[in-house]
Amino acid sequence: MTTHRISSALDDQARAILQGNDRGGYTIPTDGLYPYQWNWDSAFAAWGFSTFDLDRAWTELETLFSAQWDDGMVPHIIFHKQDPGYFPGPEVWGTNKTPATSGISQPPVAATMARLILQADPEAGRERIAALWPKIVAWHRWWRDYRCGTGVVAITHPWESGRDNCPDWDIGMAGVDGSNVGEYTRRDTGHVDPSMRPGKAEYDRYIAMVQFGRACGWDQREIVANGPFLMEDPGITFILTRANDDLAAMGRDLGHDVSEIEGWAADLRAAAPRLWNPETRGFDARDLKTGRFADRIASAAFLAYLAGVETPELAARMDGIWDAVRYGFPSADPAADSFEPRRYWRGPSWPVVNALLAIGLKDRGLDAAAERLRRETAELIEAHGFFEYFDPIDGTPCGGDAFTWTAAIWLTWAGADDPAKGAA
Ligand code: GLC
């Protein structure tokens, strides 16, 4: 049964943001800063649309998968229409695809979001998921074939993780030579405060990785074998594990044999302990160029709950990090020297990650923690609006405004579960 809660002014604003960022079949993350379709943003946008326009929700995912590569990869950006306000644009990536795309992927949350959308109305979604399902399978197979060489997921560019400048990647970034990338003009720092964005040295290295991919014609095996950056990512590992479960569940309902997908999920769970760093007592990223752990602990480490991968220490570790801030879960460890509360993934609280964490907490029966996370996230949005991310200590809104995925998680989770609102 679907319950309809009483709509609030913030609900109206959130819907208006999704509709305002709709470019016809796909939604941009925010006007100006991100003028194209981003992979995991779109999956969250679809979840947000599902609260008021199911047809549009499915269309969002269909448009995303319309840019899938022949090998199964679903790119992290789809450049539907040229926009000079963004760098690096399609001419820098040079992937020669139609539509033009980037050459890396992004966290595979689509299956998990599709299942949530399907639950809203299984009958109405049946045909849509039947057509999408094999495409999602092909994408998950791509992760397995191209990125899971050690058993867990490795990324070839920090942007692939969706957590661009997280301290997790510092150790791998240190090995990338950004000194020969040539002249270029960034566009992000013209849209938002540069102190809330990655620095120039980091950007040079990001571009060097793009140039390597382009030079080898985006040959994914070559990039993994000889590219400048390769790190195991706890975030995508846990997201993919969970997404495989969701994909298998939907496949079962459609009458498919899902044993292969169940095997992928089981293999990822079996390999997950490899990411446990006894020094930091947490799941950690590992640099595959050197074999060394990053010795960091980030929000993504606690997506272990989402994947049903736990350790006896996880809850205590999570509380320790969370209690050091006031608003939502910090993207990076507040106790580390690298912590910067307003710089992107080096400390801020991201509503969208809070939502994913809460799904995991709730599924493990940690209802009080899930509700605390929802409440703290809601407070940020209620006080400041639908920003990209927030300072987790004083709540200062950061990055882009009128942000699609912040609006989406308000409608589906942060503003939706509020017991005070009740249902009508
Ligand atoms: C930034 C974020 C990434 C997101 C994109 C669009 O690159 O780090 O996770 O997908 O912006 O919002």
TrEMBL record:
Which keywords are on file for this protein? Glycosidase, Hydrolase
Q: Where are the transmembrane segments?
A: none
The record's listing under Gene3D superfamilies reads: 1.50.10.10
Which ranges carry the Mannosylglycerate hydrolase MGH1-like glycoside hydrolase domain? 34-406
The question of whether GTP-binding is a record keyword is answered with no
| Coiled coil feature spans | none
The Gene Ontology biological process annotation of the record reads: oligosaccharide metabolic process; protein N-linked glycosylation
For this chain, one GO molecular function annotation is:
Glc3Man9GlcNAc2 oligosaccharide glucosidase activity
Q: Which family does it belong to?
A: Belongs to the glycosyl hydrolase 63 family.
Q: What is this protein called?
A: Mannosylglycerate hydrolase MGH1-like glycoside hydrolase domain-containing protein
